[in-house]
Design goal:
The chain is mainly alpha-helical and about 400 residues long. The protein has 2 domains: about 5-175 and about 285-410, no CATH class; about 205-265, Zincin-like. Helix content is about 75%, strand content about 5%. The chain contains 15 helices and 4 strands. It has a 4-stranded mixed sheet, sandwiched between helices. It binds zinc ion. Zinc ion (ZN) binds near residues 276, 280, 353 and 356.
């Protein structure tokens, strides 16, 4: 491996060290604040609930620390030790050409998935189980794994063949064509995912007629919002955590509520959660996120164009210059940069959350939103006292105490 290769491996290690440091700060801050419920929540959260939230947050954060170190070690091992022999092994069975490159990428993907299994198993059946959130059975877990593997192969194989073929046919313009195709696929996915893929994993039932649905529809009309429908998803099959989200585009938009959310919240609270989601649409956050993904993809394809055209890239790691090898190596090598960009994207996302909260406040008032946020925090055992640096780096949503304070301050 050349010096550049070594530097990239060291960067992966340093990036993991930063992740561990930030998580360590988080566990320390949460532990230091374990004995007192923040004043703003003293009325709604008991000391016992506060203790459980602290214990859950600390356990999860420690788990993430171990996973961060493990993932970095695996990435470095792939680059420094495993890719070369795996490529040699694939070469024994597959003659040079498109198929060899594709088989190599799929082999790394499959092995990588197997290496992640201990953590996914431990996450559901040990960590989430201990705090009473896990509803997943081993059967559902294995079925999910099988479906994901089949889907990954069914979607990934033709895409990889297409990309590697294009690369050979049009060495200088392939990446622009691939980029346009990728954007088209991303837009198609917003329709394909909710209609064909998500139903493979969950059941979506139209929301029952009744008081709740009437209130939701009245709110949609008030906000001037058109949608194909309101659905309830059987999230309780996997976890007790509650949530709500939007999918689709234009008239195919759907609003999906987790059954776990509908069960636990009052109609007023669910209305405020819907109003918050509508705020994201009103302010164009969904469009903004798609644009952001398009910009990131452009940079990604430009980097691929550079790496595929550059004989030395694979050489940095002492690897053969095969497009499959280059693709995997680039995906591993970019990790430290993605990690360092996290705070920027997290900051943008938190800004959007404040705007959506403000929209909800104007539509349905601040009290239901405050009470929904408090209940979500309590039910999900989220901490009320995160470390500020950790939160600024990783949180896509502002900490609940900050959101509540903002809503109260808004008059
Ligand atoms: Zn939001």
């Amino acid at each position: 491996m050349s010096l550049v290769g070594v530097v990239i491996c060291v960067a992966i290690g340093l990036s993991a060290a930063l992740g561990v440091y930030l998580r360590k700060r988080q566990t320390e801050t949460v532990a230091a604040n374990r004995e007192a419920v923040p004043a703003d929540f003293a009325r709604d959260v008991t000391l016992d609930e506060h203790h459980r939230a602290a214990d859950y947050t600390i356990a999860r954060t420690r788990f993430a620390m171990a996973e961060t170190l493990y993932d970095a070690a695996i990435s470095i091992l792939w680059l420094a030790a495993w890719m070369a022999p795996l490529y040699a092994l694939v070469s024994q069975f597959v003659s040079p050409g498109l198929t060899r490159s594709v088989v190599f990428v799929l082999a790394v993907g499959a092995l990588g998935h197997v290496l992640e299994l201990p953590f996914s198993l431990a996450n559901s059946f040990w960590l989430e189980e201990r705090f009473g959130f896990n509803r997943l059975t081993l059967k559902t877990f294995l079925l999910d794994e099988a479906k994901e593997a089949l889907l990954g192969a069914a979607i990934g194989t033709p895409l990889l063949f297409g990309m590697f073929w294009l690369l050979g046919a049009l060495p200088h313009t392939w990446w622009l064509i691939a980029y346009v195709a990728f954007i088209a696929l991303m837009i198609a996915m917003t329709v394909i995912y909710p209609t064909f893929i998500a139903p493979l994993f969950n059941k979506f039932t139209p929301m029952e007629e009744g008081a709740l649905k009437a209130r939701m529809e009245a709110l949609l009309a008030k906000c001037g919002f058109e949608s194909k429908g309101l659905y309830v998803m059987d999230a309780s099959k996997r976890s007790a955590h509650g949530n709500a989200y939007f999918t689709g585009f234009g008239k195919a938009k759907r609003i999906v509520f987790f059954d776990t959310l509908v069960e636990k919240h009052s109609v007023d609270e669910i209305e405020s959660i819907l109003a918050h989601e509508l705020g994201h649409f009103k302010y164009g956050h969904v469009r903004q996120m798609i644009l952001q993904a398009a910009v990131i993809a452009f940079v990604g394809f430009a980097a691929l164009y550079w790496a595929f055209g550059n004989e030395t890239f694979a050489g940095w790691f002492g690897l053969p210059n095969d497009p499959g090898v280059v693709l995997v190596a680039l995906l591993l090598a970019k990790e430290p940069i993605s990690h360092l960009l996290r705070p920027l994207f997290a900051w943008r996302s938190r800004k959007n959350e404040f705007e959506a909260d403000d929209f909800a406040r104007r539509m349905v008032g601040k009290e239901p939103m405050i009470s929904a946020l408090t209940r979500l925090t309590r039910d999900n055992l989220a901490t009320l006292t995160p470390d500020p640096l950790y939160a600024n780096f990783y949180f896509s949503h502002p900490p609940v105490p900050v959101r509540v304070a903002q809503l109260r301050a808004a008059g």
